[in-house]
Design brief:
A motif ('HIGH' region) lies at residues 32-42. 44% of the residues lie in helices and 16% in strands. It has helices at 40-58, 74-82, 87-104, 120-132, 152-156, 214-226, 240-253, 285-288, 294-303, 314-331, 344-351, 356-375, 379-396, 413-434, 438-450; strands at 5-8, 13-16, 24-29, 62-67, 136-140, 146-150, 190-195, 210-212, 229-236, 258-265, 268-270, 273-274, 310-311, 453-458, 461-466.
Length: 468
């Protein structure tokens, strides 16, 4: 029996998973900053680490997964102002959209989903610890406002400092990318707390009014729920620097051991470019579901290794959907079949840093073996293999017989596309009848009938349905 090995970004090596508490797995996942509709680039992270969680659960671990919501941020404030809406309404609107998207793709709900603005007290305590230790400093602002910065030079000069180790950057080359730098001692320093600006939301602290810095919130929330030392910290590759590098620095400087493993999923790209709003190549979840069913989109987003680039194309998406349907068609031949036992090859694949491509290959190998057994008249063996397929597919989150996907085919993208095509034919028929072009009208009717589509003429115009 193999054991789970995880590629740890911090050490750039695969390490055997050894939890802080035997039998328990604690995971923190950097969640959404809801400012607009979620796209498949956002959801890849959710799906990738949902598979990790499902595998840990399948192995008998008690899993605690914390996925935060950054509900205060420069971009949120800008978007809300541009649309003349309250910031809290704006972020809540799109937080619901993210939740809907996660649910649609079968991502298990997190154990808890804290919002940054609900943890100001913990952030103040964290800043006080850092100031007392000499690794942070306050900068008074105007009208009772105030900022607090992390002192990178002070921390970097301390024995045991590992600043830059996660991302591989040299300290002198690091740029935080922060627009507000009033009172900073060095460009390398980063904001723990941002001084209040006129018209912006703020909270009182001993150092003045302001709002959370991006990095501080995650240290405060993760350690509040999971403790000063926990197992796995997850997030997108683009978060390595500055976000995760700064999380490590402030947490270690405050005396917390923090995360023991760091896992980063790669991007979804299109035409070689990272999926992002600014590039204008965003593919929303709603748009994707015009092409494939939710379960097929999940299959696609989880199909590549989480550390590999997922290059989007409609051809790749539809090919993945066809792959899922081969699994679905096989399992569907055994209504009510119970989940069986995964294969040794599947277990080895999952324990090899969650190698989903290898795991999928094993599922398809099992499907082929099952169809072969069925063709040879060995239904008992085929049913046993169908049970194995079910349990393996469940680990990856797309068990065809799961209640989650029971109605997945209703009003799918394929149905919508068919409706558009049939209605175009019906309009052609209506025009032909109005012009007394009976030959064309009959040809349209016959063509649709040959495709299994029945036309019914009503007082409100023609309707169509699939023939029984």
């Amino acid at each position: 029996m193999s054991t789970l090995r995880i590629f740890d970004t911090a050490t750039r090596s695969q390490r055997e998973f050894e939890p802080v508490r035997p039998g328990h797995a604690s995971i923190y996942l950097c969640g959404a900053t809801p400012q607009s509709q979620p796209h498949i680039g956002h959801l890849r992270s959710g799906v990738a680490f949902d598979i990790l969680r499902r595998w840990l659960l399948a192995q008998g671990y008690d899993v605690a997964l914390v996925r935060n919501v950054t509900d205060i941020d420069d971009k949120i404030l800008t978007k809300a102002a541009e649309n003349n809406r309250p910031w809290w309404e704006w972020v809540s609107t799109y937080e619901r959209e993210f939740t809907k998207a996660y649910n649609t793709l079968g991502v298990l709900p997190p154990s808890v989903e804290p919002r940054a603005t609900g943890f100001v007290t913990q952030m103040v305590e964290y800043m006080q610890r850092l100031i007392d230790a000499g690794f942070a400093y306050a900068v008074p602002g105007e009208d009772g406002a105030g900022s607090v910065y992390f002192d990178v030079a002070a921390w970097n000069a301390t024995e045991g400092s590992d600043y830059g180790a996660l991302s591989g950057n040299r300290v002198e080359d690091m740029e935080q990318g922060e627009s507000d730098a009033v009172g900073k001692r060095s460009p390398q320093d980063f904001a723990l707390w941002k001084a209040a600006k006129p018209g912006e939301p703020s909270w009182p602290t001993p150092w003045g009014k302001g709002r959370p810095g991006w990095h501080l919130e995650c240290s405060a929330m993760s350690t509040y729920y999971l403790g000063g030392e926990f197992d796995i910290h997850c997030g997108g590759l683009d978060l390595q620097f500055p976000h995760h590098e700064n999380e490590i620095a402030q947490s270690h400087a405050a005396g917390d051991k923090f995360a023991n493993y760091w896992m980063h999923n790669h991007w979804v790209t299109m035409a070689g470019e990272k999926m992002s709003k600014s590039l204008g190549n965003v593919l929303s979840i709603a748009n994707m579901l015009e092409i494939v069913r939710p379960v097929e989109l999940r299959y696609y987003l989880g199909s590549a290794h989480y550390r590999s680039v997922l290059e989007y194309s409609e051809a790749a998406l539809t090919e993945a959907a066809a792959g899922y349907r081969r699994i679905e068609d096989f399992v569907g031949k055994f209504e009510g079949v119970e989940k069986g036992q995964w294969t040794a090859a599947f277990e080895d694949a999952m324990n090899d840093d969650i190698a989903v491509p290898k795991a999928l290959a094993e599922i398809h190998t099992t499907v082929r073996a099952g169809n072969k057994a069925l063709g040879e008249g060995n239904r008992e063996e085929a049913e046993r293999l169908a049970g194995a397929v079910r349990v393996m597919a469940a680990v990856l989150g797309f068990d065809p017989l799961d209640e989650q996907w029971k109605d997945s085919g209703e009003e799918s993208g394929a149905d919508a596309a068919l409706d558009v095509l049939v209605r175009a034919e019906l309009e052609r028929r209506t025009t032909a009848r109005a012009e007394k072009d009976w030959a064309t009208a009959d040809a349209v009717r016959d063509r649709l009938a040959a495709a299994g589509i029945t036309i019914t003429d009503t007082a409100d115009g023609p309707t169509w349905s699939l023939a029984d």
